[in-house]
C-alpha cells in the first residue's frame, strides 16, 4: 500500500500541471491508466489541453457520494531554491516533496486509492461513487464551473473536497471578493491642484470608505475575522502633474455571514456619492473573483457520519476552518449539497517552496474515505 501510494503520487507530481497553462489533460490520461479499461468515465474538455474527468462506480442504490479534487497546481517561480526538484517526487523521511504534493495531488491520490479499493476487490459500494478531477481550481475554476453548468454534479448528495486540512474536518471556508477599481479624474499642473481632480487621492478615499463600511471586527469561531487588503496600486505620471488616472486591486476575504452582494451594493453607493460630490470624476469597479464564504452546521447528518467514522478509526476529531477557497465555493451555493473539506497534508504547505506531504497521511485519509463509504 505504501509503495503504491508513493508510485501514484510520484507519477502525478511528475506531470507538470502548473496553472497557467494547466495541461490537466496530461494528468487525466495518467489517472485513467491506473484503472481497468472498462471503468465508467467522462471527460469534459476545456480546450488547450485542459479538461476535467469524472469516474463513476455504481453502488447498490442511486444515492451519489462525490469526491472533488483539482489537478492543477500553482506555478514554481523559484525552482532553483527548492531542496529537491519540484517535479521529481523525491521521498525523504516519510514525506514526498514536490509542487502539488499537498495542494492537492496527495488528496487526488487518496481519491484514486479509494476508487481502486472498490474496483480491485470487486466490492459494490452501498452508494454510487463519483470521483471528480477538475482543471483550473487555482485560477478561475473553469473545470468545476463547466461540470456544474452541464449538470454533472447536481446529482451528488454529499461531497468531499480532499484539500489539505491537516486531516481535520473542514466545515467552513472563507470567501474571497477581488475588486479592481479604476478612477479617472482630471490632470492639472502640480502647482494648481485646484484645477484638476486628483485620481490617486480619490482612489484612496474610495478604498478607505469601502473598508470603513465593512464589518472587520465580527469573529467566527474557526475562521477569525474578515480582512480587506489593497494588493496592487498604480497611477500618476510625474511629480508635478496632478494624476488623471489611478487603479487599485483589493482582496477582501470574508467569514460566513458576510454577504458579498451587500459589499458590492455599498461599493456602488460610495461610487455614486463620490461622483455626485465631485462632478468630473468617474469610478469603475470590476469584480475579478467572487467566491462566497461557506459553512456547514456541525450537527449536519453528513458531518455526524464523518465523526462516527473518525471515532471508529480512532482518529482525533477536530474541526477546521479553511482560510482559502476551494472548488466548493463554485458548487455549494448553486446546488446546496452537504460538503466537507477533508484531506491529507498540511494546510500551511499550500503554495510553499519545498511543498511536501506525509505518505502516511495520504494512506490514512484513503482509509477514512473507504471506511466512510462502506459504513454510510
Ligand atoms: Zn487546492
From TrEMBL:
Keywords: Amino-acid biosynthesis, Cobalt, Diaminopimelate biosynthesis, Hydrolase, Lysine biosynthesis, Metal-binding, Zinc
Pfam family membership, one: M20_dimer
Cofactor: Zn(2+); Co(2+)
GO molecular function per UniProt: metal ion binding; succinyl-diaminopimelate desuccinylase activity
Top EC category: hydrolase
Domain of life: Bacteria
InterPro entries: ArgE/DapE (IPR010182), ArgE/DapE_CS (IPR001261), Bact_exopeptidase_dim_dom (IPR036264), Peptidase_M20 (IPR002933), Peptidase_M20_dimer (IPR011650), Peptidase_M20A (IPR050072)
SUPFAM superfamilies linked to this entry: Bacterial exopeptidase dimerisation domain (SSF55031), Zn-dependent exopeptidases (SSF53187)
GO terms classed as biological process: diaminopimelate biosynthetic process; lysine biosynthetic process via diaminopimelate
Swiss-Prot/TrEMBL catalytic activity: N-succinyl-(2S,6S)-2,6-diaminopimelate + H2O = (2S,6S)-2,6-diaminopimelate + succinate
Domain Peptidase M20 dimerisation: 173-276
The EC number(s) this enzyme carries: 3.5.1.18
The protein's annotated pathway: Amino-acid biosynthesis; L-lysine biosynthesis via DAP pathway; LL-2,6-diaminopimelate from (S)-tetrahydrodipicolinate (succinylase route): step 3/3
PANTHER family recorded: ACETYLORNITHINE DEACETYLASE, PEPTIDASE M20 DIMERISATION DOMAIN-CONTAINING PROTEIN
NCBIfam families on file: DapE-ArgE
Homology family: Belongs to the peptidase M20A family.
Protein name (Swiss-Prot/TrEMBL): Probable succinyl-diaminopimelate desuccinylase
UniProt organism field: Tepidimicrobium xylanilyticum
Amino acid at each position: 500500500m505504501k509503495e503504491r501510494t508513493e508510485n501514484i503520487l510520484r507519477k502525478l507530481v511528475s506531470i507538470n500541471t502548473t496553472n497557467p497553462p494547466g495541461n490537466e489533460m496530461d494528468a487525466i490520461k495518467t489517472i485513467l491508466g491506473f484503472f481497468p479499461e472498462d471503468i465508467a468515465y467522462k471527460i469534459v474538455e476545456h480546450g488547450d489541453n485542459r479538461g476535467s474527468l469524472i469516474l463513476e462506480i455504481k453502488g447498490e442504490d442511486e444515492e451519489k457520494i462525490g469526491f472533488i479534487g483539482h489537478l492543477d497546481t500553482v506555478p514554481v517561480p523559484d525552482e532553483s531554491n527548492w531542496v529537491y526538484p519540484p517535479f521529481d517526487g523525491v521521498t525523504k523521511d516519510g514525506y514526498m516533496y514536490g509542487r502539488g504534493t499537498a495542494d492537492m495531488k496527495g488528496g487526488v491520490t487518496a481519491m484514486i486509492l479509494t476508487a481502486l479499493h472498490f474496483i480491485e476487490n470487486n466490492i459494490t459500494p452501498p452508494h454510487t461513487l463519483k470521483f471528480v478531477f477538475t482543471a483550473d481550481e487555482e485560477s478561475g475554476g473553469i473545470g468545476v464551473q463547466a461540470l456544474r453548468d452541464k449538470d454533472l454534479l447536481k446529482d451528488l448528495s454529499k461531497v468531499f473536497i480532499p484539500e489539505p486540512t491537516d486531516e481535520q474536518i473542514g466545515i467552513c471556508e472563507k470567501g474571497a471578493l477581488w475588486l479592481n477599481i479604476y478612477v479617472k479624474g482630471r490632470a492639472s499642473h502640480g502647482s494648481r491642484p485646484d484645477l484638476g481632480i486628483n485620481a490617486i487621492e480619490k482612489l484612496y478615499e474610495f478604498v478607505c470608505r469601502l473598508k470603513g463600511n465593512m464589518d472587520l471586527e465580527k469573529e467566527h469561531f474557526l475562521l477569525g475575522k474578515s480582512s480587506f487588503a489593497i494588493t496592487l496600486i498604480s497611477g500618476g505620471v510625474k511629480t508635478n502633474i496632478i494624476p488623471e488616472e489611478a487603479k487599485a486591486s483589493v482582496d477582501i476575504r470574508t467569514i460566513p455571514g458576510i454577504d458579498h452582494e451587500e459589499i458590492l451594493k455599498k461599493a456602488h453607493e460610495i461610487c455614486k456619492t463620490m461622483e455626485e460630490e465631485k462632478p468630473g470624476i468617474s469610478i469603475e469597479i470590476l469584480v475579478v473573483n467572487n467566491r462566497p464564504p461557506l459553512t456547514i452546521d456541525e450537527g449536519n447528518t453528513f458531518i455526524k457520519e464523518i465523526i462516527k467514522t473518525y471515532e471508529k478509526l480512532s482518529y482525533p476529531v477536530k474541526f477546521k476552518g479553511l482560510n482559502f477557497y476551494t472548488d466548493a465555493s463554485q458548487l455549494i451555493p448553486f446546488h446546496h449539497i452537504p460538503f466537507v473539506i477533508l484531506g491529507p497534508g498540511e494546510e500551511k504547505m499550500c503554495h510553499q517552496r519545498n511543498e511536501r506531504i506525509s505518505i502516511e497521511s495520504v494512506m490514512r485519509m484513503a482509509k477514512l474515505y473507504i471506511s466512510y463509504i462502506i459504513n454510510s
